[in-house]
Fold these 2 entries.
Entry 1:
Amino acid sequence: MTDTSATQTIPRPARLLVGLLTLLLAAALGWALWHLPGTAVGLAPEVSARLADSGVRNPVTAVLLNFRGYDTWLELAVLLLAVLGSWTLAHTTDVGPVEPVPGLLLSALLRLLLPLMVLVAGYLLWIGATAPGGAFQAGSVLAAAGVLILLAWPAAAERLPDSLLRGGLSLGLAGFFAVALGSLARTGYLLQYPTGWAGRLILLIEAAATLSIGLTLTALFVGGRPRRTERESSP
Amino acid sequence: MTLLLWGFDLTLILSLAWLGWRLLASADLFKAIVLFIVFGLLIALTWVRLGAPDVALAEAAIGAGLTGALLLTALRRMRHDDQPRAPMQRSSNNKERPS
């Protein structure tokens, strides 16, 4: 099935006009970029100055999970809303891969790949404190593993118990919530980590967020709430 | 910046522009999705060149990998919807992998 019918109904002058406007926009953006200062100062000096207090050594993780932790908390809420949105929009009976990918290659490859992917995800989560990595990167590797599982075994979406699915999807948000309440009780300020605990709490939040992000992205790939057959009662 | 890096950046930019045009102008949707995945990988390289390796990791996994898989699934469902209505064989009971 090709899409040529759609492109042929747009008249040529309109396409030329849109192309010209796009070129003008690109030229304006290029001109604006050319006149930016050569070395952007930004907030990097402030971050480096307080990096020792943040509990991690990677400035990106420090900003994401400590200085702007509230924003990351809201990002996890947005991910949960995305899954809920896809569940409300999609039919439950015709979601995701219907038949497994034929052939032996995928299942044989998965036996090698899946443990490695879990290991890589764990490594990315751990190394996020000192090097590029972190919860989102590790979670996306887990999501890729989840997608591969679904391609080889589409029934996995329905086999996962409902409570585990919902618990896992909200685990990141709940973990953040727990840490926020705990730090509120301990220090009187929301998300003000107690002294000396920042590194451990960041790892805890990131671990919960990794599982949650992996499950969320896999659920978005499935596309809808997994169908439960009548005879299977969810625990 | 050395000449090699200049050449690399220039090749990257030109490839991005050319890929963008090719995937938008492609008549075959499957080809467009494959080009989109390649585009995502080149964007991940661009993030590395801009000094943002964290974003590059996320872009490679989510933008190239997961979005590509999502688009391919959507394409398959579009094609199923366009074909004449046949009862969908949703026999998940006997399609399980014994594993």
Entry 2:
Amino acid sequence: MEIRTFLEPISKERLEEAYWIDFGQVRIELHRIKNESTKFELELLDNTPDGNKLISYIQFYTETAEPVLDQDMVRWLCDNKRCCTRKGERSRIAVRNGLYICPAYQRLGLATYVYRREEDAFREWGAQEVHSFASEDGRWTWTRPRFGYEIDDFQFQTLLQRYKEWQRSQGISPIHRPSALSEFPRQFLLSKYVSSLTLFKAL
Amino acid sequence: MNRELRVYNQDDGLILHLDFIADDALPLQIVDGTPEMQQAVRSLFGQDFDQTVVINRQTRHFTARWGEPDYIDALAGYWSSNFGWRTKIIDKAQTWAAFTKIPVVALSNVITADFVDLRASRLATLAAETGKLQDIPDIYVGEIADLWQGSILESGCGMFAEAIAESPTVVNLEPLQGNLTLELSAFPASEPFVIANAIENNPAEKPSQLQVLTAA
């Protein structure tokens, strides 16, 4: 299958456009990014467990060729991946494989900006959901309600079990039992008790 | 091949014990576990497994198709990678020798949410091995809707109920006032169900009692 066919009804250019910085919408500290230097490479894999899979590798550079991300941002577009919002179904799904921003460019709103723009492109492609692997600080940041992500019941129940163990290790009594992802405390989510979470939301 | 998975927390406490029964309608069966871990497993029933763990910015994917033996490996890998739990997988060869008895308890005639899934062939095999079921009347199986509509399975077809939950611990199988009831491992309400009822010498008639079977 050709990349052009896989991406229909959008184009490669439309997908790439998601990673161009509109300097009128970001903080001035990010104006050092040079759009013309942005790396945007694609690789199409056929017949994976998630159907056909388009992998995007993205990196931002400043005007002095300094990378903005610690490593390439990797994104998947899968045309037959298991849905999280509709059990038993498979569909077009977008997957975020991490976003690790260099310390000098953290806390400037870059992730929020990029996420919003790429979600528009994912939606136009026909993705029903976006899945995101939350690790490091993302275990806390992206689980805040304002971002709209959830975890499936399997993870939630497993997390309840782990949280119960964490509370015991902390000498906490009585044991608190959250009823929602957002109720797990920061100290727990960022502890060694949890390596990562797979978040999802409908597009 | 049947398999077994045990999961232990950091205090070496057993938090989950699963059996994987190959070629079973419900291949993943909960033997024991904390309420949270049991519910976690129940949420997977019928679903392919697809989870990812990120450690030191490296992603590890754990995927398996529902009903495949490597489902156990995917579960174990996910839990040990993400939470550091110790897991133990045992591959078991299935034998018939252990099934000399079956737990039998008649609970009530009220339909509850607990049903067990029964299949036809094994009871006949058990009868042959134990010699205890020679006089047992035919047992008919079917979904509740079928029974209520009177469309019981063909009379005289001689279908026998078969325990899906093949626990190595077994019990006496005894007729109870002409009706035979089987107590099998309990399954949650979300599981496919059948109702088994023994109808003595009158297979064409609709059963007067629907007996709910749950585990001891």
